[in-house]
Specification:
Number of helices: 7
CATH class: Mainly Alpha
Largest sheet: none
Number of domains: 1
Order of helices and strands: HHHHHHH
Helix content: over 70%
Strand content: under 5%
CATH topology: Serine Threonine Protein Phosphatase 5, Tetratricopeptide repeat
Shape: globular
Amino acid sequence: MVKEHLYSLAVAADKYDIAPLRKVCEHHLKESLSTSNALDILEISDRCSFQSLRDATLDFIATNYKDITCSKRYNDFTIDNPHLASTITRAWAFRR
């Protein structure tokens, strides 16, 4: 429940350009990164142009590449977000 509110708040902060709220949301999203929510956070960071969060999330995904990309969620994610799926692959490849 809290997760959905944070995601919605981040989108609203971006939409209405509320810089202090954007910063707080970005911080909390970074702190909550896990293998189970990294793809959701990457989608939000891309949608809201949270570059710092996007970079941190890509680094996290590259570090946990196998766990994240071998999930059912990743298969659905690649269909909905092909540009982000290729970005993940590049981040992983450049990390090696």
